[in-house]
Design a protein that fits this description.
CATH class of the largest domain in chain A: Alpha Beta
Number of helices of chain A: 11
CATH topology of the largest domain in chain A: Rossmann fold
Shape of chain A: globular
CATH superfamily of the largest domain in chain A: Response regulator
Largest sheet of chain A: 6 strands, parallel
Radius of gyration of chain A: 17 Å
Helix content of chain A: 40-55%
Structural class of chain A: alpha/beta
Order of helices and strands of chain B: HHHHHHHHHEHEEHEE
Structural class of chain B: alpha+beta
Distance between the termini of chain B: 59 Å
Strand order of the largest sheet of chain B: 1-2-3-5-4
Distance between the termini of chain A: 36 Å
Largest interface: A-B, 16 and 21 residues
Oligomer: heterodimer
Low-confidence stretches of chain A: none
Largest sheet of chain B: 5 strands, mixed
Number of helices of chain B: 11
């Protein structure tokens, strides 16, 4: 994942309640993106994002006063051009699926390397979705073909196509988008289209497995 | 005497709440003395014939001997419940018999007394039961809503009504009802006055009690968390300070602490001996601890382990070890998927890789052992690699529909 040197740098706001982590992100990706501000809680994040209108918000899932979902709920409809990328140490299904369904364009864990994070920011700024292997695994689980569908299920939203499933599987196996493209002999753009389609289904589908499965998982 | 029982050094006398005829006194005594329960019961009945001494003893035991917690013996059956009712009935009958025998029988007074005694019996049994419920409730509160107490409340109200009815009947048969009415009226006025005055006090007591109980639960949780943090995080931080010069060691320590905390927070019940997914993760942890290469494990689906799935785990572990030993990559990725008809595992690294056309001897050996191992379990193993592009091992095992692996 390389970033073209000639492209304009995306403007980024970092929202995280840990100062050290914000400083770390700034140090790691500051040269590749333009960090226009930092916020440590939901209220100041909402104010800052309204004021700066960045291209991408790096959003911590867990914060003391409601976390990433609260920020998304406050701004999603108001600022549709601002894109959100969730960033967390948390591995719980509910958190990840919750923040993506609330409108985040992707989810990466905090262990991601600086260059990979910068590439993910750029991808989100371009309107694409970013799936980490873990998120791909969660989504495959959520859309598993086994189990009965509710009668009113919308097949357009509730089922993944064979191709989308293949793409997700490769991402879950640790393949970068360009490796997925080479493996399936399709263009990177097509991979991105598939991933965006999956993101849309994840956000819009009311497939009851999405909620039921999250509950099941917690009880495992 | 109790010390003579093998395996139990020191036994206390308890009433047995699981096998009672009346209150579990005889059963408790029998267990304590190591004799047959029937013998104890016969002894009580015999003693009861001596001016009711047995009854008095039984009552004293009932009051003084604590109840054992539920579930120490066989679970209580419906038969146990009805037998207890029979026992209580027999006791009431015995009291009556004693009353007749000792000449203190006043026909008109007896019936109200029996009714009142039945009410008291109900309430006292309830006291035993509620003690038990409190024990149960404490353990269940952490899991979900407590047990339904509707039946308990009904029993309490019913018992109270029986006692009141018995008292009223007793007074009525002695033509004392009119006089009692005056007294009762005065009592009611005084009691309600007192209740009104002291209500805030009771209310506060009740709230403080609740508050204290909640605080205790909270502080227990805090203690557990503190212990956990101390055992893992604090220890690790101390070790990290001491090994600050050795980045590999520091990284290894931080990873193991992270993993431990993570599994405690998010996967409390994962059981590597029973579930395939947990076993894959355990294998990755093992390889990381021995060879220092972390693997990110992503999984879809799960199923219980069986023999052939254990083979898949072993093969996956071998592939990870192989990647850790010879790929040179900093980290690897493991993906497993459990579908109804097959299980697949991919182990991938972005290390040096190798040209399959010129397979080094050791690689060849590993490949053969992987392929052979999987073949014996009815599955397949495929190695893919290219110079400079890392290696990926794909393991697949078809499953018999409905059953375990083939």
């Amino acid at each position: 994942m390389t970033v073209g040197a000639d492209a304009p740098r995306p403007r980024v706001v970092v929202v995280d309640d840990h100062r050290l982590f914000r400083a770390g992100v700034r140090a790691e990706i500051g040269a590749l993106v333009e960090v226009v501000g930092e916020a440590a809680d939901v209220r100041s994040a909402v104010a800052l994002i309204r004021q700066t209108v960045p291209d991408v918000v790096l959003l911590d899932v867990h914060m003391p006063d409601g976390g990433g979902q609260a920020v998304l709920a406050a701004l999603r409809a108001e600022l549709p051009r601002v894109r959100f990328l969730a960033l967390s140490v948390s591995d719980t299904v509910d958190d990840v699926i919750g923040v993506v369904r609330a409108g985040a364009r992707g989810y990466v864990t905090k262990t991601i390397s600086g260059p990979d994070l910068a590439a993910a920011v750029r991808r989100v700024a371009d309107g694409d979705a970013v799936f980490s292997p873990r998120l791909a695994g969660f989504v495959l689980d959520a859309f598993a073909e086994s189990g009965p569908l509710p009668p009113a299920a919308d097949p357009e939203l509730d089922l993944l196509s064979q191709r989308e499933r293949e793409v997700l599987r490769l991402i879950a196996r640790g393949y970068a988008y360009k490796e997925v493209a080479r493996e399936l002999v399709i263009s990177i753009k097509t991979v991105e289209t598939h991933v965006s389609a999956v993101l849309r289904k994840l956000q819009l589908s009311n497939r009851h497995e999405l909620t039921r499965w999250a509950t099941d998982r917690r009880l495992v | 005497m109790a010390d003579a029982v093998a395996g139990v050094a020191h036994r206390r006398l308890y009433r047995d709440p699981d096998r009672p005829l009346v209150a579990g006194v005889a059963a408790g005594l029998a267990a304590h003395l190591g004799v047959d329960v029937v013998l104890v019961r016969v002894a009580f009945v015999a003693l009861a014939a001596l001016q009711g001494a047995g009854l008095l003893m039984y009552a004293a035991f009932w009051v003084l001997v604590p109840q054992a917690s539920v579930g120490t013996s066989a679970p209580r059956s419906r038969w146990g419940r009805s037998s207890q009712l029979v026992g209580l009935g027999a006791l009431a009958f015995g009291v009556l018999a004693v009353a007749v025998a000792t000449g203190s029988w006043h026909g008109s007074a007896a019936l109200p007394l029996v009714v009142a005694a039945a009410g008291i019996g109900l309430i006292w049994r309830q006291a035993d039961e509620s003690l038990r419920l409190r024990w149960l409730g404490l353990s269940r509160r952490l899991i979900g809503p407590g047990p339904a107490t509707g039946a308990a409340a009904a029993r309490l109200v019913g018992g109270g009504a029986l006692v009141l009815a018995g008292m009223a009947a007793f007074l009525a048969t002695h033509d004392a009802l009119a006089a009692a009415r005056q007294g009762i009226l005065a009592t009611v006025v005084v009691v309600s006055g007192l209740a009104l005055v002291s209500a805030p006090l009771w209310w506060r007591l009740w709230r403080e009690l609740n508050e204290e109980r909640r605080e205790r639960i909270r502080s227990e949780e805090r203690t557990e968390l503190a212990t956990r943090v101390h055992d893992s995080v604090l220890q690790t931080l101390t070790l990290i300070q001491r090994h600050a010069a050795d980045p590999h060691q520091v990284q290894r320590l931080a990873r193991s602490s992270e993993r431990e905390l993570r599994s405690w927070l998010y996967h409390p019940a994962a059981d590597a001996d029973r579930q395939f997914g947990a076993a894959v993760e355990a294998a990755a942890v093992e390889v990381e601890e021995v060879y220092g290469m972390p693997f990110e494990v992503v999984g879809v689906g799960d199923r219980p382990l069986d023999e052939s799935l254990r083979t898949v785990i072993l093969a996956a572990r071998e592939a990870m070890v192989n990647a850790a030993k010879s790929s040179g990559a900093a980290s690897g990725a493991v993906f497993y998927e459990v579908e109804p008809e097959r299980v697949t595992v991919y182990v991938r690294d972005r290390g040096a890789g190798f040209d399959p056309a010129v397979v080094p001897h050791d690689r060849y050996g590993i490949r053969e052992s992987l392929v052979g191992r999987m073949a014996r379990a009815g599955g397949t193993a495929v190695l893919r690699s290219a110079q400079g592009e890392g290696t990926e091992v794909a393991l697949a095992l078809p499953l018999r529909p409905g059953g375990g692996g083939t």
